[in-house]
Automatic annotation (TrEMBL):
HAMAP family: HisD. Gene3D superfamilies: 1.20.5.1300, Nitrogenase molybdenum iron protein domain. Binds 1 zinc ion per subunit. This is Histidinol dehydrogenase. Pathway: Amino-acid biosynthesis; L-histidine biosynthesis; L-histidine from 5-phospho-alpha-D-ribose 1-diphosphate: step 9/9. Its EC number is 1.1.1.23. GO terms for molecular function: histidinol dehydrogenase activity; NAD binding; zinc ion binding. NAD(+) binds at Y129, Q191, N214. The lineage of its organism: Bacteria, Bacillati, Bacillota, Clostridia, Lachnospirales. Catalyzes the sequential NAD-dependent oxidations of L-histidinol to L-histidinaldehyde and then to L-histidine.
């Protein structure tokens, strides 16, 4: 983990290094992904089952691809009652938070005889992708599904890869049941994204696909965008901590490592005005690495994308944070709420030393599906609006249109669209 002085040159170098992790850097996989998508579009279930056998070593048919109720009940038996109860509490916290995001349709009648409005309706079918194996995260199931349920999406389809014996991760299944998934299919990878985007004999075409995945899943979502809506092209996990001399180095070190353990491409960055804090954080990291189970992954992550920057002042830290636009931003300063008011770009902001990033991952309620790779400059966390569509409503009376028809005709003629102008003019011949 490098320790550097924060300046224009080191900040530029950092941003370049972080952006090197986006999906545009993996063009060598695009042909493979596009071939899979084309095959699924052309051959449906047949291609889907072939890929499942090839990649997951699991033989499926139209009768076994869908998870049954008995399989879900069996999954409940594999988990501790305590864990099931915690998932239910988490789901409720997520629901309560996202309920506050709901908006209603509206319509407005004006004195000039016009009626304008907006109709807000849920999409019909939502699709969620959930990784399998060691990368199975029940928390992501809750974060993807609960906002869709709050938006009143009627049908929620989930795809997740099976093990060799045709089973699905128990935590994933129980989380799906708690959150309200309608149906679960045992397919993964780019082939699952293609199946949801275009439909097969067994899997319905959905309106939107959300959820994390590996590079093949990310590239498949990118390729299918336009045929179907997606949440985002998610990049590796990121955490940025800005801290002053009041920060507890042990807490800061623990929080940095909480994201570095995701994978070798994860980024963990500390920017501090205190050289003493920087030094002690580094010492604490070394101590933690002796006991953590994913120490090898963490070391690779820190070697490649781990940084400690020493800043001259608070404003330099804030400017750097806005430039980095991190997925997760922790503010551990004397007045974190005051510092927060100056932050423009971040996926989620955690304030104070008792608001550790995993609080947001699992329990607090705000969504943990966040913009990465500096996209927090223009993207938002997954939210209820992602599962809604808005339709404009326009109605003018004859008198209302008569008052403005000359304006509209002039505008149309200036654009050279005489049929547009005529569509208005014929009503007043």
């Amino acid at each position: 983990m490098q320790t550097l002085r924060l300046n224009t040159e080191t900040k530029k170098e950092l941003l370049g290094n972080l952006l090197g992790r986006n999906t545009g850097s993996y063009s060598e996989y695009e042909k493979t992904v596009n071939d899979i998508i084309d095959n699924i579009r052309a051959n449906g279930d047949s291609a889907l089952f072939d890929y499942t056998l090839k990649f997951d070593k699991c033989s499926l048919t139209k009768d076994t691809v869908k998870v049954t109720r008995s399989e879900i009940e069996e999954a409940y038996k594999e988990l501790s009652p305590e864990f099931i109860e915690v998932m239910k509490k988490s789901a409720e916290n997520i629901r309560v938070f996202h309920e506050k995001q709901k908006r209603n349709s509206w319509i407005e009648t004006n004195e000039n005889g016009s009626i304008l409005g907006q109709r807000i309706l849920p999409i019909e079918i939502s699709g969620i992708y959930v990784p399998g194996g060691k990368a199975a995260y029940p928390s992501s199931v809750l974060m993807n599904v609960v906002p869709a349920k709050v938006a009143c999406v009627e049908r929620i389809v989930m795809c997740t890869p099976p093990s060799k014996d045709g089973k699905v991760n128990a935590g994933t299944l129980v989380a799906a049941d708690i959150a309200g998934v309608t149906e679960v299919y045992k397919v993964g990878g780019a082939q699952a994204i293609a199946a949801m985007a275009f439909g097969t004999e067994s899997i319905p075409k959905v309106d939107k696909i959300t959820g994390p995945g590996n590079i093949f899943v990310a590239l498949a979502k990118k390729a299918c965008f336009g045929y179907v809506s997606i949440d985002s092209i998610a990049g590796p996990s990121e955490i940025l901590v800005i801290a002053d001399e009041t920060a507890n180095p042990r807490y800061v070190a623990a929080d940095l490592l909480s994201q570095a353990e995701h994978d070798e491409l994860a980024s963990a960055i500390l920017i501090t005005t205190s050289e003493e804090v920087a030094k002690k954080v580094k010492e604490e990291i070394e101590g933690f690495l002796k006991t953590l189970s994913r120490a090898d992954i963490i070391r690779k992550s820190l070697d490649n994308y781990g940084y400690i920057f020493i800043a001259d002042n608070m404003q330099d830290m804030i400017d750097a944070a806005n430039a980095i636009a991190s997925e997760h931003l922790e503010i551990i300063t004397k007045n974190p709420f005051e510092t927060m008011t100056k932050i423009k770009n971040a996926g989620a902001i955690f304030l104070g030393e008792y608001s550790s990033e995993p609080l947001g991952d699992y329990y607090a309620g705000p969504n943990h599906i966040l913009p990465t790779n500096r996209t927090a400059r223009f993207f938002s966390p997954l939210n209820v609006d992602d599962f809604l569509k808005k339709t404009s409503i326009i109605s003018y009376s004859e008198d209302a249109l008569r008052k403005v028809h000359n304006d509209i005709e002039l505008f149309a003629k200036e654009e050279g669209l005489t049929a547009h102008a005529n569509s208005i003019a014929v009503r007043f011949e």
